[in-house]
Amino acid sequence: MQMTGAQMVIEAFIAEGVDTVFGYPGGAIMNVYDEIYKQDKFEHILTRHEQAAIHAAEGYAKASGKVGVAMITSGPGFTNAVTGLADAYMDSIPMVVVSGQVPMTLIGTDAFQEIDSVGISRPCTKHNYLVTDASDLGRVLKEAFYIAASGRPGPVHVDIPKDVTAQLAEFDYSQPIDLPTYKPTVKGNKRQIKKAVEAIAEAKRPLLYLGGGIINSNASEAVRKLSQITQIPAVETFMGRGSLRFDDDLLISMVGMHGSYAANMAMSETDLVIGLGVRFDDRVTGKLSEFAKSARIIHVDVDPTSISKLVNANFPIVGDLSAVLEEMIPMLEKSVDPDKYAPWRETIERYNNLHPLSYKDEGKNIKPQWVIERIGQSVDSDDVVISTDVGQHQMWTAQFFPFTRARQWVSSGGLGTMGFGFPAAMGAKRAAQDKISINITGDGSILMNIQELMTAVEYRLPVINVILNNNYLGMVRQWQTLFYDKRHSETDLSMQPDFVKLAESFGGVGYRVTTKEEFDTALKDAISKNVVAIIDVVVDRHENVLPMVPSGGSLFNMMLTDKD
Amino acid sequence: MREERRIVSVIVLNESSVLSRITGLFAGRGYNIDSLTVAPVPDSKMSRVTIETSGDVKMMEQIIKQLHKLIPVYKVIEHSEQIEKEMALVKVPIGESLSDVDALCRAYNGKIVNVGNDSIIAMVTDEPQRVRYFLKAITKYNPKEIVRSGVVAVER
């Protein structure tokens, strides 16, 4: 069928079952926006900044498991989107981002709003395309959706010059995908799986090390089963939160720089690391030469480049986690005796009792950790999607929120993008409309995409933003306190807007909270009003995120108190 | 850090952006490519890229894995038992002894391929190390221009 390039974009989205596109129009993408105007198959959500459009699509993808879709124009529209692309790339979020480009005839002439977009997005996307002929566009878009969602997921960027969106060409979306050079491995190597199972049966102190790949592969049910039948203790990475339930006895806690004492000690003393969908990030391992020193390593990941990148795997298994676990679980049922690990579980229990994850709830100011625990107590955890920005509040949330399920945790792990939380929480709300979307944020981060109050109000995406307000750029302040002799260079954020009026001026509701009672009232009110809200919680200024493994230190050398 | 010279052949889809995807992996890590040759593979949609590089062994392994991961990359061949060849073209002033230059070229699998009004052009094709020896020897004849092809390699 003949149609314009712009119509092809719409038809491809419809064929892919896209129900929401986040975006921002502009000159080079106008032909496509004209077609958006004419259709009613999906909703376009106009964010107030291109970066927010990408983060919203990320939040949508994380909460739903579907491919997030965003659209932007050329030049500044695209460059504003780059942070979002990089964020999605680092956290393996499936996404298709379509950008306009100046017409083919003007490319390379320094035309108005021209920039070499594919040149910029190349190192921060899974793949990208510059479409130079409309007859390629259908194939390219189909490939883009397939590449984004398959293998290790990631963002795919499609740059379309304006004249290509106007060009008439044949469109046939039913053509099969033919990518001879891209064949992601799904099934794990049988022999390796068998060897790994034997290693688990032989181990005395095995440890499940659960990462974000579990969420991406929709393998949390399989992991829960694996954990049940083997009774092997588990630690979760920041990205892997929600793989197991928070109240599961076998889940120790989060591991890494701000992991719990028991989790980090378990990682240091295990004799077999069972890494599932993890990538041995520097924030997890600490000093590499001391990491899990006496352990053999099983590493299951869909991305072969993640395996033995930083830590050598004795049992590398490349494959989709769900597929690998499906093979592994029946074998483990036969060969593993869960009682064998009982002494190991007791050791960990002792570590847990020795230094549980905790904070001192004292003094007149609210402790930030209390707010997070309180949110967990006030709502049924199953019913919420929790987003965060980046900083202390993010780590406290990862430590203290009672996670119960996969896809309820939306946070920027790899890139650590301040300003991610609010737009991502909007996207998550859009994807999971029956859930309460709460963005736990800081007084620094929230201002980095505050304009999205308008989007959230306009499209009735009632995100509750809880600001843990310490008048500081808290995480940097913490490092300055600990490692820079308290020279608090440019981290004092005492100059602040009135967040209540700010929320109200956009049509939302605002609360200023200084006591626990006020917080309870505000949260209850915001949930029942079901509108966009900011709850500005004044918290203890000097609280640090603990435990802490100083950057480059060994996991077992944790600072447990401020005095360490 | 253990440094090592490495020859890698990459079979890729013959499309416009593929070379920058490959070189970007090196550039992003501050690695130099010592030589690079690209030509289409006959009767296919593929091209063969031969990269000569040197650097930290561990980092190189990572780059090679990342090469595999690029969508248009079909195959990465890490050579260990390879035949390597390189070509050089050298322009020498006409005043130099033709027979001397000719004899030198022959010692390195080469010959004189062109004689013009004011210069002669010599060509050699040999292993990279031997091409380097040749280029050293030819300096005696005041070469005006030296062009090297970069390495091509095939596994034994």
Question: What topology emerges from the helices and strands here?
Answer:
The complex is a heterodimer of chains A (564) and B (156).
Chain A: E1 2-4, H1 5-15, E2 20-23, H2 30-38, E3 43-46, H3 50-64, E4 68-72, H4 76-90, E5 95-101, H5 117-121, E6 127-130, H6 134-149, E7 155-161, H7 162-166, E8 168-170, H8 190-202, E9 206-210, H9 212-216, H10 220-230, E10 234-236, E11 251-254, H11 261-269, E12 272-276, H12 282-285, E13 296-301, E14 315-318, H13 321-335, H14 342-354, H15 368-378, E15 384-388, H16 392-400, E16 409-410, H17 421-431, E17 436-442, H18 452-458, E18 464-469, H19 474-483, H20 499-505, E19 509-513, H21 516-529, E20 533-538
Parallel strand pairs in A: 2-3, 2-4, 4-5, 5-7, 6-7, 9-10, 9-12, 10-11, 12-13, 13-14, 15-16, 15-17, 17-18, 18-20, 19-20
Antiparallel strand pairs in A: 1-8
Helix pairs in contact in A: 1-2, 1-6, 3-4, 3-17, 8-13, 10-13, 11-14, 15-16, 15-21
Chain B: E1 3-13, H1 18-27, E2 33-40, E3 46-56, H2 57-69, E4 73-78, E5 82-93, H3 98-107, E6 110-115, E7 119-126, H4 128-138, E8 145-155
Antiparallel strand pairs in B: 1-3, 1-4, 2-3, 5-7, 5-8, 6-7
Describe the structure.
The complex is a heterodimer of chains A (564) and B (156). The radius of gyration of chain A is 24 Å and the shape is globular. The model of chain A has no long low-confidence stretch (mean pLDDT 97). In chain A, the strands form four sheets. A six-stranded parallel beta sheet of chain A has the order 3-2-4-5-7-6, with helices on both faces. Chain A has a six-stranded parallel beta sheet with strand order 11-10-9-12-13-14, with helices on both faces. In chain A, strand 4 (68-72), helix 4 (76-90) and strand 5 (95-101) form a beta-alpha-beta unit. Chain A is built from 21 helices and 20 strands. Helix content of chain A is 38%, strand content 17%. Chain A is α/β, with parallel strands linked by helices and 564 residues long. Chain B is α+β, with helices and mostly antiparallel strands. In chain B, 28% of the residues lie in helices and 47% in strands. Chain B contains four helices and eight strands; from the N terminus they run βαββαββαββαβ. In chain B, the strands form two sheets. In chain B, strands 2-3-1-4 form a four-stranded antiparallel beta sheet, covered by helices on one side. In chain B, a hairpin with a 3-residue loop joins strand 6 (110-115) and strand 7. The radius of gyration of chain B is 18 Å and the shape is elongated. Chain B starts with a strand and ends with a strand. Chain A binds chain B through residues 118-119, 122-123, 126-128, 130, 147, 179-182, 303-305, 309, and chain B through 12-13, 16-17, 20-21, 24, 28, 62, 65-66, 68-69, 71-74.
